[in-house]
Amino acid sequence: MNLLRFRFLSIVALILWPAASAQRPNQIPLRLEKTIPLRGVEGRIDHLSVDIVGQRLFVAALGNGTVEVIDLKAGARIHSITGLKEPQGIAYYPPAHALFVASGGDGTTKVFDTTSFRLNKTIQHGDDADNVRLDEVNKQVIVGYGDGALGILDTDGKQLGEIKLDAHPESFQLERNGSRVFVNVPKKEHIAVVDRAKRAIIARWSLAGHQANYPMALDEIGRRLFVVCRKPARLLVFNLDSGKVVAQPDCVGDSDDIFYDSKRKRIYASGGEGAISVYAQRDADHYEQLAKIATGSGARTSLFVAGLNRLFLAVPHRGEQSAAIIVYEAVE
User: What is the per-residue pLDDT across 182-227, written as a single tens digit (0 to 9) for each?
Assistant: First the structure.
């Protein structure tokens, strides 16, 4: 897909806005800023991470077996980390200039120095290493993997232990002001609530009849957890205190990433259907879809960076559609 077509689709997206948006016709929640080509990158693109100070974006190109490094100021790719086996989860740890990359193909997490891109360490998990999260409070790195576990590493990559789950974990979120971890476990059709101090599951929350819960975001201050299910395509909003679903609006199909924008009280969910669903949080229990912005086929992963006021969307190569990172500015 060329640049003109991306811009055309973003304009067409305005037609998809629900009637409620007509009250403020000049407000576009995400403004298309630029497209950064990823020439030669093939296959599925998974998750992203960012170096805000260095203005670099790290992209796990799963199908290509690489991590693509993008200079955000220049709007161009500057490096590729090659030789990876299905890189999926990725997390940048600024104090050590370290990039943690979890790969499903060989079940490892590799730690790279981002000044030289030298491989510093390889951690063996056994199978299907997937999502990665930084626990900044405890200075730990958490990796989901295998038939059901969260592996705990220190920021040097030393293995500290694991937390057993009932099946393979997808997206998970950590409380900053508590010890809980909320984990999507789609094969068991629940959310596992884990106490990372006890290293044990303390609750399992039902999906209220939904299935295929993959992406997740957290509004810890507002006491809400956001989970997108693919069957049917819905955004489920959970009360953090009761574990009950308080809202379930329709959502873009085949979603794999969702983010909460606390400044604007908005939610962004990207889906492989070829769109981004944008919601306004009217209050803790009420949500309105502001827009459904057309993107590209299979563009289901993204990263919202509050410090840069930008949403980065990964678009894979499919037919005439070129692989690229699409940069959107969040508009007031």
Answer: 999 999 999 999 999 999 999 999 999 999 999 999 999 999 999 9
Other CB atoms closer than 10 Å to residue 211's CB: what's the count? 12
Domain boundaries 50-206, corresponding CATH code = 2.130.10.10
Fold (topology level) of 1-37+214-332 = Methylamine Dehydrogenase; Chain H (2.130.10)
SS3 label, residue 19 = helix
Decide whether 1-37+214-332 matches 50-206 in CATH topology.
yes
CB burial of residue 285 (10 Å; 0-12, 13-18, 19+): exposed
- Give, in order, the Cα–Cα distances in Å from 276 to each of 10, 28, 35, 95, 325: 10, 13, 16, 32, 14
**Where do the structural domains in the chain lie, given as residue ranges?**
1-37+214-332, 50-206
- Contact yes or no for 237/245 (Cβ under 8 A): yes
Among residues of the chain, what percentage have pLDDT more than 90? 91
Predicted TM-score (pTM) of the model is 0.93
Beta pairing partners, 284: none
